[in-house]
Amino acid sequence: MTTHQTADVNVVNDVNVDAMLEDLRTLVEAESPSRDLDALAASAKAVAAVIENRLGGQAVLVESEAGPHVHWSAGGDPRVLILGHHDTVFPLGTLERRPFTVRDGYATGPGVFDMLGGLVQAVHGLAALDDRSGVEILVTADEEVGSRSSRALIEERALACGAVLVCEGAADGGGVKTGRKGCGTFRVTVAGRAAHAGLEPAAGVNALIEAAHQVLDIAALARPDAGTTVTPTVASAGTLDNVVPAEATVVVDVRVESADEKERIESAFASLAPHLDGAEITVQGAVSRPPMPESASAGLFAAAQQLLPGLEGRAVGGGSDGNFTAALGVPTLDGLGAVGGGAHADHEFLAVSAMAERAKLLAGLVTAIQRGSAPGRARR
pTM of the predicted model, to two decimals? Predict the structure, then answer.
């Protein structure tokens, strides 16, 4: 982990790490697996309570089919959107096996790095500012499962504010994320025809064999030289060992760096054709998160480097809600959250020693945007 000396960021009060850890415990212990509506409702209330306790005002719960999103505004002319999510990938009961713990300078527990730690740091960073005018916070409930219910709201508030700071976990070594690949999931379903595997296999249309052909065709779509990865990840077929499979499915993860590659990949999936007579293919999915080009973060990253000399920026393969805002042309800087690692894994951790520095970095960026010394909407 790289540490830096934080430049003057107009923070009028220091941040309290013990208080941040207290709030982090509260959010972690309100387990929040995606798609669990009851758990997400409780988690949203916990997030809203932390925001209101530290910043005042009212955090509004925006109901959706995926669970409640949390929106808070300091009032005034919208200038900057702090963006995050409170859903996690861990099922209920994970906390019993991996309780929130602080030991030897690290906090552990489900969601500490992705991305509850970033939320807490953002709130405390804002709490340390004398002027929060124009700041909004949006914490969504479905980022881990595609942001289908929150995308329109994210885009609306991003356009209204004119600058976005994303509190996803930092890149390896503590850097911020200056670019992200576009990403999506495709589901290819093969319909064949069942038959007895011993008596008359030729009477069937083997969906598994057709799926094998499709996997090879799909994998060949990758272009590593262009930053495009196409990775079949899940497959299923068949019902019994003596039946020609009548159906098979293949799930494919896709990552692209450019809009041109997004169009090529989506066109290629739409054009998949069967190899076996009688087989039929259905394709669902798209590159649902557009690429986040590094140009979208350039100005904000330069401002961050002024605040934190030596800060590194990295383009990464994973997507976030920052992909949506950057695609709109709104200046967006990602990876401003916790320094740590192990996202989505049992060894997930957060470095306590970096919490104050990251909170102050975000506070400094907010101030720079307010003053017009970092990209954002001109003050009206």
Answer: 0.90
